[in-house]
Amino acid sequence: MKILLLTGSTRNDGNSEQLAHAALQGLSYETIQLKDLDIKAIEDLRHTDEGFHPVDDDYTKVLEAILRSDLLVLATPIYWYSMSGTMKNVIDRFSHAIRDTRYPNVTEHLKTMKAVVIAVGGDQPRIKGLPLIQQCQYTFDFLKIEFYSYIIGEARKPGTIHNDKLALQQAAYLNEQLRTLS
Amino acid sequence: MKILLLTGSTRNDGNSEQLAHAALQGLSYETIQLKDLDIKAIEDLRHTDEGFHPVDDDYTKVLEAILRSDLLVLATPIYWYSMSGTMKNVIDRFSHAIRDTRYPNVTEHLKTMKAVVIAVGGDQPRIKGLPLIQQCQYTFDFLKIEFYSYIIGEARKPGTIHNDKLALQQAAYLNEQLRTLS
Amino acid sequence: MKILLLTGSTRNDGNSEQLAHAALQGLSYETIQLKDLDIKAIEDLRHTDEGFHPVDDDYTKVLEAILRSDLLVLATPIYWYSMSGTMKNVIDRFSHAIRDTRYPNVTEHLKTMKAVVIAVGGDQPRIKGLPLIQQCQYTFDFLKIEFYSYIIGEARKPGTIHNDKLALQQAAYLNEQLRTLS
Amino acid sequence: MKILLLTGSTRNDGNSEQLAHAALQGLSYETIQLKDLDIKAIEDLRHTDEGFHPVDDDYTKVLEAILRSDLLVLATPIYWYSMSGTMKNVIDRFSHAIRDTRYPNVTEHLKTMKAVVIAVGGDQPRIKGLPLIQQCQYTFDFLKIEFYSYIIGEARKPGTIHNDKLALQQAAYLNEQLRTLS
């Protein structure tokens, strides 16, 4: 099973990323830090005559990494009760990706994938992060990706995710499960 | 009452924007199309020694417009069951704005504001758009902005919001209410 | 189109019921006030050898009314951010109804039905009533009932739903739509 | 710290109850199985001249147990994506309890309490159980009860909660936390 970790934080080594690494410990996986890429906001051309056209940025790097993976791990800080804008722009671009004539098998490939969401926030994330999880569910349902699991962690200052024993336990448990998949 | 409309669509004259114009018909308001601005994703520097520093983009245009307004209308297409990444980046930047030493009264000003959310989507938006509304509620609660009202419309193709009679009725009703405020 | 209105209030002529009557004005429909019936809480016997057995209460009245209807209108006050316990007990009994050997076509009949939810509450119902709507969506999805529409109204004291012009407008609009169905 | 466990299942020793016992293992607590009590649906008399009057059922047993407790553990099966009707009727009766002249300190006492919710369901409960958690949050917020923690477990057949290692881990972790409180 090939694993791709996308991190949506704007910090290096942010709490959500650390929690993701804990969940993936000992497994082989590719990491893409979205903050290091240039990903433009989608331009919605679904309803124009010409449709979408290639965009000159790094999105194809993300898309190609997805196409060679079986498990997608989205690790995002919870900014204002949802995923970071950095990650949202990547998700928004799926509307292009599933219509991109250069990559005709995106839709089919996504149907074979599983996804994990790891989100860390500071303001009651286990309650106020729930709408984010529901949105991910709707998104994965639309794309027919299996929503394998999610972990919500609580932390504010850098590195303090290690004080959230519950999230760490969940990460350890997810790690066990992922090992049985591969 | 000064009204600011922020549109999150990547299209000119998108459905959410049209619905917002319907709600604001006959009222005086300023419109900022976010797609025409350069707004960078936030860099989370809350926990660094130096804190946030000025970013060279158009965010201060948005912030200054907010500071001279009493009512904030956020009009966004529903992309993947939440606001557009374009708009999300603006919201994310609030974390900087409320700590921006150049604008010391942001927090106080926001407490005096009301907000309206107008969101239009194509896939069961009146159900699957609800998490977005919940996130806005949490956000406005945090900032102590009064969440005055929201309208969810259903449309896919450009201009078809005019077939959603329910949304148009709600816009007309909101229009009446807003007239009584000013 | 045969319409069945189930009211979950414990008051006569409660706000949610009044709003439902507004939505159904001029249409022919049957009303069952759940408070006038004896509906026991479900006893979960799904996993026993003998399974469910007939219960001596008024549930079959509700079930038989559903079986002769095409549109189910659930009108409930929002008590503690969800439907009333009175109505919840009726919903819970669906677990029995779909396995009730005396009514072998419940599952098939439900798939042909549409449902409308009308909920009225006093504490920010258009925000805090959203989880209730999501639960109804999950329930109707499971039963393959079409979730046709919902209206959330705001009122506390008896009769004050008539001050909620937005809800009344939505009821008038729903009324128009329902007329085109029949 | 005095702990009260209310179970909302209609089965003896249901999965949600077993998960609650796991979370409370080794601690001293009182258990009330709601299915063994006669709890009537609320009659909403808030707006009548005479107000609420005593109801001849077992509610005061529940209320008095709450009044002598510091931590309330609600263990409920997830029926149709929310708490059981049996438990909902108990929650609904809070509207009476906080206005019950025989128990003048209910409101004050609740503000000193913490609550834990333990919910077990069979159909993607970690996603589809989230609206239930949101409703509990709104309820506890209203009553100023601290929402201490929640656990969502997945199980259908009796006793199978023991296959949900993640829920068991969360129960063990909660158990540790509760020990530090007492």
UniProtKB/TrEMBL annotation, chains A, B, C, D:
GO molecular function ontology, one term from the record: oxidoreductase activity
Keywords: Flavoprotein, FMN
Domain NADPH-dependent FMN reductase-like: 1-123
A Pfam family recorded for this sequence: FMN_red
The keyword Iron is annotated on this UniProt entry: no
Keyword Flavoprotein: yes
Signal peptide: none
Name of the molecule in the record: Flavodoxin family protein
The species this protein was found in: Metasolibacillus meyeri
